Every structure is written in C-alpha cells, then in structure tokens.
C-alpha cells in the first residue's frame, strides 16, 4: 500500500516494520467517528473558501458512500493500510480522484486521531452510563423487596450489627452512583475539540474551529495546539473511572461468591447465570462473579499501561501514543461486559431471607444494643460495654444467645437490667431503631432507595 509520506522516501517499509507500525487492526472501530470528523472538517474548509464547494460536495458524498459500504459489509476495512485515517483517505481518493487529496488540508493525523478518539469515547461513555443505570435499577429493585430482610452486617468479616439486605445493596447503589457521576463529570473534559491543532502548531490557513466544534457536538475548544495533540488526560480519566467502577463490581462479586457458598447460603444464583463442574455433579459455580472479580485486574492493568506510556513523553505527538487505543478499548469493553453480566446476575438471583435471618440470630449482633440499653439506664458507655462483654463471654461458655439469658442472670451482671431488656435486644427492634440518616432501619433504607431513584430520574 502506498504510504502517505512516500515523497521523501526512497525505499518501502519492510514488511515486518509495516505490520509493527500499523494500528488499523484496532483503530478501525473508529471509522464512523473518522468520517464524521472529516465531513465537519471539509464543510468548514469550504465555508472558509479554503477548498471549493464542488470538491467539498464530492468529498462528502464519497465519505458517506464509504460509511454506507462499510456498514453494509460491501467494503471491508483492509489491514493493508496503516491506520483508519489513511484507509478512509485512500479509499476516498480511489473513489473520487484528486478531490480526495484535498481533504487533509489544514489537518494532521495528530489532531485527527485525537478527535476520533474523543468522539469514540463520548459514544462509549454514553453506553457505559446506560449500563450503570441498568445495574443500579437492578439492585434498587432487589433492595426494594428487602428493606426488612434482616441479615448480619459485618466488620472484619465478623458478624457485627443487624442490617438488612436492602441496606447492604444500597451501599453498592451509592458506589455506582458516584461512578456514574464520575463518568458524567469526565465528559466536560472529553468534549473539547482538538481539531485545528493540526500537527502541533496550528495552521496558516484561515480555519474556523468554532464551526467544527459546533457541528461535532463539542462543548469547548483546546486552547493550545501543542496540548491539543498531546493531551490524553481524557483517556486516563475514563480508564481510571473504569478501574474504580470495576473495583466496586469486584467487591460486590466477592460478596456474591461468599453469599452463594454453602457456608453462607444467603442467595442462590439462577441456573441461567451459573455454571457446573465437569467432574463434581453437585457443583453450581458463580463464574460470572468470579470473572468480574478477575477481569478487574486487566482494567487496572490498562490504566497502568496508559500512565506509563504517557509519563516520559516530550511534547507534542509521539508514536507511543498509538498504544493508548488498545488499552482504553480493552478497559471499556471489559467494563461494559462486566456491567451487563452483573445486571443479569442480580436480576435473576434468589434471596434466601430465612438463612440471612438465621445468621443474624447468631453472633451477638445485638450486643451493642444491649450496651446502649444500659447507657439509657444511666451507665457510662464504657462501663456498659464492659458488662455486656462479660455477658457475651458467659453466653459463649454456656452456648446461649443474648435473647435466651434469664433476667436473673442479666441482673447478676447489673442491677440495671429489667424485663424490658428483651425488647431492647429483639432483632427487629434493634433494626427499626437505627433511624439515623443512612442507617439500617427500613424507613432510612427506603429514603436511600428514593435518593438513588431520584438521581436516576434526572437522566
Ligand atoms: N495511528 C496513529 C495513532 O493512533 C495515528 C496518528 C499518527 N500520526 C503520526 N504522526 N504518525 O496515534
């Protein structure tokens, strides 16, 4: 394939170097953004009388034909070209002749690739936002059915205090909501138009950057042409937002894996979202959750790839930057897959409420409430804490739970105990009393659910 730069060169590229240099295998997915950008560019060039109206018409018609043919499968993006930019330009010139050669006036592949990537990542961000929304809706749905489903809340993976399954899920709701906001916020810096930065120094042609900005749907214009072609912060931001979201999904997956083990048995995954074993007939494995947890590593890896690739680059464009694409594409492809799979898993899982309730009955998760009871009777918290510690120790030795201890027994630890202690430590009461904002009480959790629903309504 003839190179764009062939004038200065006496020899063709060696075959292996040619392959090494090319990015078409992975940047061809930006064909539609490349064409969209070129149409905007050429329209502006004609408006500013930098090229003729007739050439513009021919170019646009040619570009639209290429897009149509790629989409119908009639035109296959050939790996013979170096990248998607040279493919589109080469194909255009094949189709319309010399007019095609005017397309690249006042433009460089350096601002072109920055433009294409921004436009492509805008499309991907919108998809990711919808997928996060789906995931949020699925956990809200389950949470709404479980605002009174008591389960033990854990710290150090030790049973700690009573919460509900709905409350626990809404913790993930808040995480994913922040993720959503992070992606939305990053759009402000993503939607900045680099076109017109050209190779690095701008151009001698009287271009109109405001015009392309408007047509391409950007919110701002890069104010320094060197930065315009060198900036990949928007890629880093997306990759780090993806990494944070994956970290949240991974923590969630870890819990799913624990919850569906026989040791917990808090949930059962649907057959349609689980796998079996090739040898052990009894097995039902949470592969989806494990894969989400496992794939988090590659998304972190993509982020590190990008940071490392950029850290030593002098201004302006360097070919190293071609490496941004595979990393960010992998990162967002993986995130999208994981969001979709997690949503399906949550939507179909069965919540085993009785098992949660049973686990909540053990582990003294109402011990804090027992101490609070003594505090309400006038004892300083530290003293109350000590006494209840001794009671727990006594119960453990005698295989009792707090609800089973007789009043006489209670009073042998403190005279302050009366019949109403049983009410104070009844699990449902312990839960219903946690009405502080953000707390476990069904009323509080309902507010949390409403908060998320309200946020989702804004879209
Ligand atoms: N394939 C290149 C990339 O992804 C496009 C830009 C090439 N520019 C250049 N001056 N070689 O970064």
* Distance between the ends: 47 Å
Strand content: under 5%
Number of discrete domains: 3
Hetero groups: arginine
Low-confidence stretches: none
Overall residue-averaged pLDDT value: 95
User: Mind telling me which CATH architecture of the largest domain this is?
Assistant: Up-down Bundle
Quaternary structure = single chain
| Biggest β-sheet strands, sense, barrel | 2 strands, antiparallel
Total number of beta strands = 6
CATH class of the largest domain equals Mainly Alpha
Overview of the structural elements:
- There is one protein chain.
- Helix content is 62%, strand content 5%.
- The strands form three sheets. A two-stranded antiparallel sheet has the order 1-2. A two-stranded parallel sheet has the order 3-4. A two-stranded antiparallel ribbon has the order 5-6.
- The chain has three domains: 6-105, Orthogonal Bundle (Fumarase C, Chain B, domain 1), CATH 1.10.275; 110-203 and 216-358, Fumarase/aspartase (Central domain) (Fumarase C, Chain A, domain 2); 367-425, Ribonucleotide Reductase Protein R1, domain 1.
- Strand 1 (150-155) and strand 2 form a beta hairpin.
- It is mainly α and 459 residues long.
- It contains 19 helices and six strands.
- It has helices at 15-21, 24-27, 31-47, 53-72, 84-96, 109-144, 165-190, 209-216, 225-230, 233-259, 287-311, 324-348, 353-361, 367-376, 381-397, 407-413, 421-425, 427-432, 442-457; strands at 150-155, 158-164, 192-193, 220-221, 267-268, 350-351.
- Helix 6 (109-144) runs antiparallel to helix 7.
- The model has no long low-confidence stretch (mean pLDDT 95).
- The two termini are 47 Å apart.
- Bound molecules: arginine.
- Arginine (ARG) is lined by residues 23, 27, 83, 109-110, 113, 317, 319, 321-322, 325.
- Arginine binds at residues 23, 27, 83, 109-110, 113, 317, 319, 321-322, 325.
């Amino acid at each position: 394939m003839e190179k764009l730069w062939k004038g200065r060169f006496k020899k063709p590229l060696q075959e292996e170097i040619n392959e090494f240099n090319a990015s078409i295998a992975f940047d061809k997915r930006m064909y539609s953004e490349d064409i969209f950008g070129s149409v905007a560019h050429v329209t502006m060039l004609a408006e500013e009388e930098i090229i003729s109206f007739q050439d513009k018409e021919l170019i646009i018609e040619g570009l639209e034909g290429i897009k149509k043919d790629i989409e119908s499968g009639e035109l296959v993006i050939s790996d013979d070209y170096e990248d998607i930019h040279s493919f589109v330009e080469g194909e255009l010139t094949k189709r319309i002749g010399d007019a095609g050669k005017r397309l690249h006036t006042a433009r460089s592949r350096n601002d072109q690739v920055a433009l294409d990537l921004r436009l492509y990542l805008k499309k991907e961000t919108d998809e990711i936002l919808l997928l996060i929304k789906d995931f949020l809706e699925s956990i809200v749905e389950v949470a709404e059915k479980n605002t009174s489903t008591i389960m033990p809340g854990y710290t150090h993976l030790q049973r700690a205090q009573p919460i509900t399954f709905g409350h626990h899920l809404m913790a993930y709701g808040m995480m994913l909501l922040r993720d959503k906001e992070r992606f939305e916020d990053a759009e402000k810096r993503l939607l900045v138009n680099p076109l017109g930065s050209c190779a690095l120094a701008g151009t001698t042609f009287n271009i109109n950057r405001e015009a392309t900005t408007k047509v391409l749907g950007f919110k701002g214009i890069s104010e320094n042409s060197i930065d315009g072609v060198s900036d990949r912060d928007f890629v880093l931001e997306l990759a780090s937002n993806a990494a944070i979201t994956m970290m949240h999904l991974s923590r969630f997956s870890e819990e799913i894996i624990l919850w569906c083990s026989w040791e917990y048995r808090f949930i059962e995954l649907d057959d349609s979202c689980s796998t079996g074993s090739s040898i052990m007939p009894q097995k039902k494995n949470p592969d989806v959750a494990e894969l989400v947890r496992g794939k988090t590593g590659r998304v972190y890896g993509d982020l590190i790839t990008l940071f490392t690739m950029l850290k030593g680059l002098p201004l302006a464009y360097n070919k190293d930057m071609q490496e941004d694409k595979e990393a960010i594409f992998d990162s967002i492809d993986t995130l999208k897959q994981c969001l979709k799979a997690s949503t399906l898993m949550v939507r179909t899982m069965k919540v085993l409420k009785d098992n949660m309730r049973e686990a909540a009955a053990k582990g003294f998760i109402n011990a804090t409430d027992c101490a609070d009871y003594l505090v309400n009777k006038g004892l300083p918290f530290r003293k109350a804490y000590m006494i209840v510690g001794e009671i727990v120790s006594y119960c453990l030795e005698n295989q009792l739970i707090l609800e089973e201890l007789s009043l006489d027994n209670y009073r042998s630890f403190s005279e302050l105990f009366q019949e109403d202690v049983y009410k104070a430590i009844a699990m449902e009461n312990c839960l219903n009393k946690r009405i502080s904002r953000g707390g476990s009480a069904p009323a509080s959790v309902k507010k949390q659910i409403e908060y998320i629903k309200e946020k989702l309504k804004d879209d």
